[in-house]
Amino acid sequence: MIYNKNMDKLHLENIQSVIDGAVENKIIAGLNVLICKDGQEQGYWESGFANIAEKKHFNRNTICRLYSQSKPVTAVAALILLEQGKIELDEPVGQFIPEFWNLQVCYEGGRNGKPQKANRPILIQDLLNMTSGYTYGAWWDGAPLGEHLTSDLIQELNKDVMESRQITTLEVAKRLAAIPVSFEPGTDYNYGLSADILGAVIEVVSGMKLSQFMKKYIFDPLGMKDTGFFVPAEKLDRLANVYKQTETGMELFEYPNLGIQPFMNKEPSFESGGAGLCSTIDDYLKFAQMLCNGGEYNGVRILKKATVDFMTNARLRPNLQKKFEEKMEHLSGYTYCNLCRVAIDSGRCKALTENGEFGWDGWLGPYVSIDLKNKLIMLVLMQRTDSGTTSTTRKIKNIVYSGL
User: Fold this and answer.
1) What is the pLDDT of residues 336-345, one digit of tens each?
2) Nearest alpha-carbon partner for 23 in 383, 362, 401, 282
C-alpha cells in the first residue's frame, strides 16, 4: 500500500480488522475499500468472497452492481447538459416528455384514492432533489394511490427484465407520468424514481441512449472501461454474487429488483439512471477523483469547477429540509441535492465527516464519500441486499476521518 504522509498509516490499518470482522461474523460476504487523499492512494483493503461457493475472493477487479450509487453519475450527466445550455433547473419536465403536462396528484391513502390535476409541473430540479412526488412504491396498505401503482410498475419491470426486455427508459418515464404523484411537486421530499425520469430526459435532450451519453461524456474520457449497464460476456467471471444476510449467514440472492436484472449479462432496454450501473472500485475512483479535483481528471475536464462547487454547496429550501430530516433520520446533519447527500452540520452526522462532504450509497451497500476541503475520497463496494450505508461503512469512515 502507498500512504500519504498526511494520514496515519498505523491508524488506517484498523480498516482491515473491521472488514475482516464483518466477514467472519457473516454480516457481509465480501467487500473492498479504497481511500485516496490529495490524488494519492492512501490504502486499499479487501476481505471475503465475491463468490462463496467457488471461494472466489473479492478483489480490485471485482465488478459490483452499484444500484443507487448510479445516481451521482446520472446527476453529472444532467449537469453536463446544464453546462451546455440544453436544460435548466427551473424547466418543466413536460418540455421534454409531454406526458408530464398532464400530471395528477393523489393524497388519499389506499388504492381507491381520487387523483386531481397537480397545481404545478415537475421541474428538472425536483428530479435532482427528490422533490418530484415519485417514490419507490407502497410500503403499507394506507400509502397513496400513486405509490401502489408505482409498486405495480416495478413488479412489471422485474418481470420484463427476466423475459421480454421491451420496456425502454423513455417508456418507464411515460408510464410514471400517468401515475399520480403523492404530493404537489416541490412541496415535500421522498426518495424514489426521480433519477430514472431524469435518465429519460437526458435521452430526449441528447438524442442518445443514456448508456451512450454516459460513455461519450463520462466513461470514455475518464477511462472507465468496466462501468456500464450490463457486463460483457468476457467479464462476467469478475461479477460478484449478491447475498442476503440471514440468521445462519449469507444466502445467495438471484432475483431482479427495481427492474435491474440479477445477472447483468444482457444489454437492458430499461437503462435505470437511478440504479442500473455496474463498476469496479478503481473505475468509480476515477469518477470520484474527477469531482474531487473540481471536475477534471488526468487532464480531461468533465464539469466546470463552478458546477462541482454547486453540487457541494446546494441546499434544500428550509421547508423541504425539515421534511427530509423527518423522513431520513439516519442522514442527520445532511441535506439532499443533485442526487447526493451533502453534509451541512457535521456535528449531527452519524459518522465523522466534514461539512461539504458529499456522495451516496446503494441498495447493495456500495458507498462513496467525496470531501473537497480535505481532498479526500472514500469508496466501499459490497453486494448485500437491503444495505445502504452499513455499520461497517460508518466504522471505516470514523477510522478515516479520525486519522486525518
Assistant:
1) 999 999 999 9
2) 383
